[in-house]
Amino acid sequence: MALNIFIADLHLSSDRPDTIDLLMHFLQSYLSVGDNLYVLGDLFDAWVGDDDDAPLADQIRCAFQALTSRGVSLYLQRGNRDFLLGKRFMHQTGAKLLPDCYRVMIAGQPTLLMHGDLLCTDDVAYQKARRTLRNPLFQWLMLRKSLVSRRKMAATYRQLSREKTGSTAADIMDANVQTVMRYLQKYRVTQLIHGHTHRPRVHHIMLPDGQPAKRYVLGEWYADRACALIDNGEMLYEKVVNFPSKYVVN
């Protein structure tokens, strides 16, 4: 039976080679012909454009192209770290780019897929910055800069993000409950799957009409910890990735 598999927040970077190796293992060992893999944002720790010629970019292009060539469907959403992913990358890999809010039937239930940053409305400064970063004119101007310039800007952005995370109250950076409710009602769904917050958990929600709903939060990937949310057609369940022996801690 074909599976729908959801992952998010891999934050792939040359500084985290074990996480890259873990993804390669996952693609080769956990996906079969007919399966659908959904990556709900922040595949990369920073993506400077589809013209990136860094070894990591080429490695992921080749891995994804091999994946789709053997009959696995690949769907990507942009996150706050890889918002410059575009059509060229999709063409090179055989992936399909999904809008940030995407409605689909999962485990027999209408489900909304999101990266998750739109839900964090208490973080007013971030939402303002997000509107700028997602502006097509800003992105067009960004992509006209040299790769060297973009890489320097990405490094600065990552540093500022780390500093902000360390100085901002955790609750502010989490999903706002009322915002979650609005999205569930707007898209008429009873399930929401997202990443971004790095707080994996299943939240049970009661909609205003009395209908129960669930919010599944995907966890961030690390070299020694990763999981995927899997739909077998009837239910959603979490699957911990079995690491190669090099990752097992005795």
Layout of strands and helices, then pairs:
Elements: E1 4-7, H1 17-29, E2 36-40, H2 55-69, E3 73-77, H3 87-93, E4 96-97, E5 102-106, E6 109-113, H4 124-133, H5 136-143, H6 147-167, H7 177-186, E7 191-194, E8 201-206, E9 212-217, E10 227-231, E11 236-240
Parallel strand pairs: 1-2, 2-3, 3-4, 6-7, 7-9
Antiparallel strand pairs: 1-10, 5-6, 8-9, 10-11
Can you summarize this structure?
The chain is α/β, with parallel strands linked by helices. The protein has helices at 17-29, 55-69, 87-93, 124-133, 136-143, 147-167, 177-186, and strands spanning 4-7, 36-40, 73-77, 96-97, 102-106, 109-113, 191-194, 201-206, 212-217, 227-231, 236-240.
CATH homologous superfamily annotation? Metallo-dependent phosphatases
CATH topology: Purple Acid Phosphatase, chain A, domain 2
Gap from first CA to last CA: 34 Å
How many strands appear in the DSSP assignment? 11
Q: What proportion of the residues is helical, as a percent range?
A: 25-40%
List segments where confidence is low: pLDDT < 50 over at least 5 consecutive residues: none
**Average pLDDT reading:** 91
Biggest pleated-sheet summary: 6 strands, mixed
Radius of gyration: 18 Å
Gross CATH architecture: 4-Layer Sandwich
What does this structure look like?
- By secondary structure, the protein is of the alpha/beta class.
- The chain has a single domain (4-247), classed as Metallo-dependent phosphatases (Purple Acid Phosphatase, chain A, domain 2, 4-Layer Sandwich).
- Helix content is 34%, strand content 21%.
- A six-stranded mixed beta sheet has the order 4-3-2-1-10-11, with helices on one face. It has a five-stranded mixed beta sheet with strand order 5-6-7-9-8, with helices on one face.
- A hairpin with a 5-residue loop joins strand 8 and strand 9 (212-217).
- The longest helix has 21 residues, at 147-167.
- The chain is globular and about 55 Å long.
- The two termini are 34 Å apart.
